[in-house]
Design a protein that fits this description.
Layout (H helix, E strand, L loop, with lengths): L15 H18 L8 E6 L2 E7 L2 H9 L10 H10 L1 H11 L14 E11 L6 E9 L3 E7 L4
Antiparallel strand pairs: 1-2, 1-5, 2-3, 3-4
Length: 153
């Protein structure tokens, strides 16, 4: 089964929170490149559940590199490639539904985009237990704020 996208009609929407987090993430990476901040600096995303620290993945670039045969799948990058495809899975499903005769005016309810994060550490407000994930798709409607830095113990 091919993982290539087959979107006939790209969905025309912009998720402001996703765009903002992506822009701040790129800025933080630039600060790290110029040694203005520590190399261990991570994006911090504040939700009602807790603080989430991680690295924002540019899924489009990961998918593009894979589809151009610039990247091969290995144990080290399997999850990154899979989660990059999963980030656009809803778009593909919606595009398929719209391609069914009579469904072209499909209404999408409760839409929020997702943000692909890797090397994730979650500090829940209601527990001392720290949660670690290699990859996470975060629904952007859960974001209430962003920052960057190192988690203070």
């Amino acid at each position: 089964m091919s993982m290539k996208k087959n979107l006939k009609e790209p969905l025309k929407r912009v998720d402001y929170k996703r765009a903002q987090v992506t822009a701040v993430s790129e800025y933080v990476e630039s600060l790290k490149d110029h040694r203005y901040v520590s190399m261990s600096t991570k994006m911090m995303i504040l939700t009602n559940f807790g603080e989430i620290y991680g690295e924002v993945v540019n899924s489009e670039e990961v998918v593009k590199a894979y589809e151009a045969d610039e990247t091969t799948i290995s144990d080290q990058n399997l999850d990154e490639v899979n989660f990059s495809y999963l980030e656009s899975a809803a778009d593909e499903s919606i595009a398929f539904q719209k391609s069914i005769p009579g469904q072209n005016d499909l209404v999408i309810k409760n839409f929020s985009g997702t943000l692909h994060l890797k090397d994730v550490t979650i500090y829940p407000f209601s527990s001392q237990e720290i949660i670690r994930k290699n990859h996470l798709l975060l629904f952007t409607d859960q974001i209430i704020g962003i920052s960057y830095g190192d988690k203070k113990k």
